[in-house]
Write a structure and sequence with these properties.
163 residues; Beta Polymerase, domain 2; two-stranded antiparallel sheet; 44% helix
């Protein structure tokens, strides 16, 4: 399975899903040289948005990611509304993580969207991308090895962007 974030975001946008891209892909869009193999998004928990997200996930052929093979599941609005933290998915276009409660001071979609910017990642494809400060805060709070290793690069990128 090839990672194709443009196709994932295209389908999310076509279904009018409200979301902010966070994590590694957001950092890449903002200029980070660090590679990523998945897309992390914080979706709005509004019922209408969860309905649109459910439709998008069906189009993406999303399945719950496990250590073995992905597991098919009914990813309907009711199921999505019950997610408290993160839902790791495998799609036809690569891995997609729905992060409902990201690490760090930004707790939900509205708080992440507050500092996000609109970025064009392909011709005519504009997505909301978390601010570099929010990405750094979240990685610091998550305190995972891979996040700690990324911090010097992201902080250096922030310094260059602030010049």
């Amino acid at each position: 399975m090839n990672f194709d974030p443009v196709s994932i975001c295209s389908i999310l946008n076509e279904e009018a899903v409200e979301y902010v891209v966070i994590g590694g892909l957001a950092a890449v869009v903002l200029g980070s040289p660090l590679p990523t193999e998945d897309i992390d998004v914080v979706p709005s928990r509004e019922q209408a948005n969860l309905q649109r997200l459910s439709k998008a996930l069906l189009r993406l052929n999303a399945k719950i990611r496990t250590d073995d093979e992905p597991v098919p599941a009914l990813l309907d609005p009711t199921f999505l509304a019950q997610m408290s933290h993160i839902l790791n998915l495998a799609t036809d276009f690569g891995m997609l993580d729905l992060t409902f409660s990201p690490a760090g001071p930004r707790a939900d979609y509205l708080q992440w969207d507050e500092h996000a910017s609109s970025e064009e990642i392909a011709q005519g494809l504009v997505i909301r991308v978390a601010s570099l400060d929010d990405i750094i805060d979240s990685k610091r709070a998550a305190n995972r090895d891979k996040d700690i290793r990324a911090l010097p690069y992201l902080e250096s990128l922030r310094e260059v962007r602030d010049l």
